[in-house]
Specification:
- It is built from 11 helices and 34 strands.
- It has 714 residues and is of the alpha/beta class.
- Strand 19, helix 9 and strand 20 form a beta-alpha-beta unit.
- Helix 1 runs parallel beside helix 3, helix 4 crosses helix 6 and helix 4 crosses helix 7.
């Protein structure tokens, strides 16, 4: 995290003072004042000392092992250690010692260092007497010790070549509950583990079997190991998580009927896996199953009854040809990914997946049939069937068969149907059958014209027609459409091109020729964040990726965690964007709140990244939402034009809507003088934008990273 030390310290101190009376404030502030500012860790230590034992243990485990890990994963492990994790984390969040952002636990570097220093001070000179070890040399000092140890509770070791270990080094650590090892080069094949172990996370685990004495184990992550899994999982009643990705010796996943608590199973890249035991299909608590790139897997299971399932993925299992029958209703919100498999059809019982909201069948080249009942599932909003050429004419069967009344019509909102040899009549059926569509991708198809009934699609906001080489005619589009992609539609008629431009408002309330300095669009707003559309016209440049960077009063609104969406542009290209599409509804409210604060003029700057200077830019103000009295255009160093010249339209080679993916949090103003915290004052408002959730449009081409490394899941 990038927060300044003083800001983090002040947040921790402020959180520790909340809900306390005046005398408690005075006492605490006097205590802080005894620690000079340079001794920041001592200041932070006061908040730690105020914790109870349960919260202290959770805090130290996060500081030593779990910073940046997925909250749900950590909760399961620590619950298995007998901690009251949910309540403890709430207390740590209230005291600003940890944060939960996008489902991940975050701890500032300073706070993490303070926690680790607390552990070191348990035994400054004797590593064997500390509760947790994470420093490379400390761990290597301990492992050759063949004496029994009742102090060590957790070990993390990353990257270790062959070392002087005894085979029973871990077995002698009687209180060891967390063991995390990465890329350790050990020659031993039998590795006894202590019975108290709750987490065994060992990438490159050298044995071909799992110790049978791990009766309290909660999570097993043994990726890239020679495991064979020849025995059933017996006596694993507490096990909730298994990750055996890239274990190339696994051919058969065994019986797990005695692991009834299992919630997540990951087998990505098990290239010799050919069979699952039928017990996998009847696990009552399984929420997540991913076995992508299992290239020898022909069949998953014949039947499944998984009432808790929320995510199922077999992407890139190229010879997987059968989907199991569904036994009983499965009503949990469910995402299924079967990209690039050999699936030919879906079973009739697919209709029992009533919680299904996302189905990805992209590049299933043998898929020739979709049951009409699929589209009547009440929660299905996203369907991706691009690259399924045998489906091209299948939608003709639905003509008139799908209800269109508001109460019973299909709920589909996003349809990707590219590379499917769609014809004009197929597109007509799609538009009539799915009146609730918001996003339609029919790129790289063969149709010549878009049906006139598209004007009735009043919810449609995004239409991708790129690489439709035969497309000639596009009728008037509904007013809801904000993005149209017609790149490489080289057959478009002159009348269609003119029509598309006519649907752009007689734009610019303000436009300019851009000088070399400054390199940004500059305007001022008050009252609310302005609802505007922008256009950027590029001159001489190479074909390259371009994004936008936005700031308000010199504070960035671009995410530190996720870069902005970039688009490829070239000489004479034009970028058109409705600024409202950059943000979620919640983010837009936060923008409004920031601009409203104080009813003063706020400076808004937009620049291209990398630093490319367009030759023109324009702004259109949506006057039904933004008064012209609440927006000003900066004229310094810019040459104003009244925009009579629209010749740049003729230079158009490509027009793309540019969206910003996510945003960073700006930091709260710190209180410089602790004593002044006691005095009433009107604090400055914090400008904070949440990172926008792009998960529903996330491409699943790549394997997701797994717990134990970065803990990123679908």
């Amino acid at each position: 995290m990038a927060n300044h030390p003083k800001e983090s310290t002040t947040k921790v101190i402020g959180s520790n003072l909340i809900y306390k009376n005046l005398e408690e404030w005075k006492s605490a502030l006097d205590k802080y004042e005894k620690n000079p500012p340079k001794d920041i860790q001592s200041v932070l230590r006061v908040s730690y000392d105020s914790l109870e034992g349960n919260e202290k243990d959770i805090f130290l485990d996060i500081a030593c092992f779990f910073n940046g890990k997925k909250w749900e994963y950590v909760k399961n492990v620590l619950d298995g250690c007998g901690m009251f994790t949910e309540d403890g984390i709430r207390i740590l969040v209230d005291k600003s010692l940890v944060t939960i952002k996008d489902g991940y636990l975050r701890m500032h570097d300073l706070i993490q260092n303070m926690g680790r220093e607390i552990v070191k001070q348990e035994a400054p000179k004797e590593v064997r007497d500390r509760s947790r070890l994470w420093f490379h040399e400390d761990v290597l000092e301990l492992l050759p010790d063949d004496k029994e140890n009742k102090k060590i509770e957790g070990i993390k070791l990353v990257q270790c070549e062959e070392h002087d270990w005894t085979d029973n080094a871990f077995e002698k650590m009687k209180k060891l509950r967390i063991l995390i090892l990465r890329n350790t080069n050990l020659s031993c094949r039998t590795i006894p583990q202590p019975e108290q172990l709750r987490l065994l996370d060992w990438k490159g685990y050298p044995s071909n079997s799992i110790p049978s004495n791990l009766k309290k184990i909660v999570a097993l992550s043994l990726r890239h190991s020679p495991l064979m899994l020849e025995k059933p999982f017996q006596n694993f009643e507490h096990l909730t998580y298994m990750n055996f990705s890239h274990c190339e010796s696994i051919t058969h996943f065994p019986n797990v009927s005695e692991a009834q608590c299992l919630r997540k199973l990951i087998l990505n890249g098990c290239i010799n896996l050919v069979r699952f035991d039928e017990s996998v299909g009847f696990l009552p608590n399984l929420t997540y199953l991913r076995a992508s790139k299992c290239t020898k897997l022909r069949k998953f299971l014949s039947r499944i009854c998984l009432p808790s399932l929320e995510h199922l993925s077999f992407n890139w299992c190229r010879i997987l040809g059968l989907f199991p029958d569904i036994v009983g209703k499965m009503d949990k919100p469910l995402k299924i990914c079967l990209k690039a498999t050999a699936i030919q059809e879906l079973p009739d019982s697919f209709v029992d997946l009533v919680g299904l909201h996302y189905l990805d069948l992209t590049s299933c080249e043998k898929l020739g049939y979709l049951p009409s009942s699929l589209f009547m599932l009440p929660n299905l909003v996203t369907l991706k069937v691009g690259g399924c050429p045998q489906l091209g004419g299948s939608f003709a069967r639905f003509r008139g068969s799908l209800p269109t009344t508001a109460e019973s019509r299909p709920s589909l909102e996003t349809l990707h149907f590219s590379h499917a040899s769609l014809r004009d009549e197929d597109l007509h059926v799609i538009m009539q059958s799915f009146p609730s569509l918001e996003v339609l991708d029919v790129s790289s198809n063969n149709f010549v014209s878009i049906p006139a009934c598209i004007h009735e699609s009043s919810y449609l906001t995004s239409l991708d027609l790129s690489y439709c080489l035969n497309l000639q005619e596009i009728p008037k589009l509904p007013s809801s459409v904000r993005k149209v992609d017609v790149r490489h539609c080289n057959s478009l008629s002159a009348s269609t091109t003119s029509m598309l431009w006519s649907q752009i408002p007689e734009w610019w309330d303000h436009c300019t020729r851009w000088k070399h300095n400054p390199s940004y669009l500059n305007l001022k707003a008050r009252g609310k964040f302005p609802a505007v559309a922008l256009a950027f016209v590029f001159g001489e440049m190479n074909y390259q990726s371009v994004g936008l960077h936005l700031s308000i009063d010199y504070g960035d609104v671009n995410s530190a965690y996720q870069p902005s969406h970039n688009f490829r542009v070239a000489e004479n290209h034009v970028l058109l964007c409705d600024l409202r599409l950059w943000f979620s509804d919640e983010e837009w409210k936060r923008l409004d709140a920031h601009v409203e604060h104080g009813n003063t003029w706020k400076t808004v700057k937009v620049r291209c990244v990398p630093d490319i200077i367009p030759v023109h830019w324009g702004v259109y103000v949506y006057k039904e939402e933004t008064s012209m009295e609440d927006i000003q255009f900066q004229e310094r160093e810019l040459t104003y034009q009244s925009c009579p010249d629209r010749s740049w339209k003729k230079r158009l080679s490509s027009a793309e809507k540019l969206a910003i993916a996510s945003f960073s949090e700006s930091l709260q103003t710190v209180v410089k003088n602790l004593k002044r915290l006691m005095a009433p004052r009107e604090e400055e408002q914090c400008f904070c934008l949440m990172q926008h959730d792009r998960d529903k449009d996330k491409d699943e081409d790549e394997d997701e990273e797994e717990e134990g490394e970065s803990d990123i899941e679908a």
